[in-house]
Every structure is written in C-alpha cells, then in structure tokens.
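ok posting inputs for the zinc ion job
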Amino acid sequence: MTEPHQAVESLGDGIYRIDTKMHRPGLDACYLLGGDQHWALVDTGPATCSATVLAGLEAVGVAPEALRLICPTHVHLDHAGGVGSLLQHLPNAQVLAHERALGHLVDPSRLNAGARAVYGEEELLRLFGYLEPVPVERIRAVTDGEIVHLDKRELKFIDSPGHARHHYCVWDASSRGFFSGDAFGLSYREFDNANGAFILPTTTPVQFDPQGWHRTLDRMLEHEPEQVYLTHFGRVRQIPALAANLRQGIDAYSEIARRHAGDGRARHANLVQVLTEDALRRLAVHGCKLPEARSRELLAMDIELNAQGLGVWLDRQTRH
Ligand SMILES: [Zn+2]
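and the output
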C-alpha cells in the first residue's frame, strides 16, 4: 500500500498526486499529468500553497517551462486560488477555465470579497490567500465535451453541475480516469479499510443542485471510469460502488435539509448535528475502526461547510 500522505505520489500513466498541504496533510490535492515537455496541472490548491505545488513539480522533475496547461476544476479557493500566483512562475502555461469560471479568474475581486466576508481578512490570508488576477491573454474557456490535446494525450472537459455550476471534470482516456474536483464527492484515505473507500457529498455554498449532480454522475459513469482522482483526497477505484454510495449521500442530504427547513434560528446547528450523526452511522456501516473523536475531527470542517451549503439551498428554494 502506498503511504497516504507522501507529498508526491506517482499513480502511473504519467500522473502524480501532489499534496498542497492546505490546513493538514491528506486534505487537498492537485494533479500533475503528462510527459516529456508537455505537462498539465489539474487544480492548484489555494494561493498560500503555491510554493508547495512548485516544489511538487520540481520533485517530479518537471521544468516550469514544460507546464503547458492549468485546469482549475472550479473557482473555489482550494481548487483555483493558486492559479494567478502559479502563472507567474510557469511562463508557458495557459489556463483552461469553465466558461462560468473565466470571468472570476480574470477579475477575482468579487470572489476575494466574498471569501473575505466569510472568513475575515486575517483568516482568509492565513487559510487561502487572495486569488491573483489571471491575465486575459493567458486564459480561455473550454466548452462541454471539448477535447484538448496535451502532446499525445487527449483530455476531455465535461460540464459538471451539482457541487458548483462553474465546475468541469477532466476525462483522461489514457488512464480511463476522471479528475473530478469536487464532483465525485470527498473521500479521505484515513477511512480506507478492507471494504474500500468511504465517500461523502460536498455541498459547500452556494450552488448545490442534487438533480444536476445525479446527471453529472450519469455522464461520468457512461465513460466507465476505472479510477477517479479526487481533490479531497487522492485516487479512488471501484467507481460504480462509490458512485452508488455518493448518490445515496446526495439524496440523504436533500432529505435531511428538507426535514430541518423549518427549524428557524436552530437550523444550522441542527443540520451540523444531524449530518455528523449521519456520517458516523455511515462510517460504522463501512466498518470504520477509527476512534469516533478522530472521525469527527477529520470531518468537522466539511460538515460545517455542507450544513452551510444545504442552508443556502433551502433558502434558494423558498425564494422561488
Ligand atoms: Zn468546491
């Protein structure tokens, strides 16, 4: 078995998982893929982790000039926050963005202001840093189904709503794998056991869309992927079984949210509590032997964000 938290893990087929070390090891990844003088980076981690990502390139032996493409799966800071700062060190890299993400990357002022409102200036700088603007001549939008060549490798970009509407996944035919950003949920390697991996939805504010997510999973599975490369965290296999678990999780989340829609001021606290109990129950079914306190610790941040996102989803429904 490979060590889960080594800084750089070789996954075969010219693919390397780099740990951005955001917040803690084993939480946030980006992927380097390619060969020879043609490499791509899928997701970047936040701006605070750009030096770690560049060290990852160096560890694999990829010269900055050989990095051709930067592919942020969506514009959440843990996936795209480093795009602007990395570009300053990667002279030949072009950014391929979802059409709904492009404007935010060129002018990140709204994104940065939104993050500052959530975290406060000091926390934002400590946790993520600001997204630096991407020069307009170094970025272009990719369309749904577009195939981009990276030397001999073909990468296909698939529009992937569900977690966020500005989200794409990248299909890599050579490894029969998807770089999924957050569209295939999250799965921490600490929960791996003989039953395989444990998977949860990630419903971070503000665009959770359960129906859209099911359609995204349909489209992903049509490709019969043998592996999925998650940003949170690492490669998973046994994809049909994990997809079924993720679908159950998405449906359970919608149901839980609806059940607590009328909780008023207590709604958020109640959602956090119920989502935590739901995760612990699923972990028990999974045969997880970690102490409960450790499981709670590993999931606390995601469950807080998931509860916030479900709250936003409920509010959006009542407004229409
Ligand atoms: Zn996200």
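notes: The CA atoms of residues 111 and 289 lie 40 Å apart. The mean pLDDT is 95.
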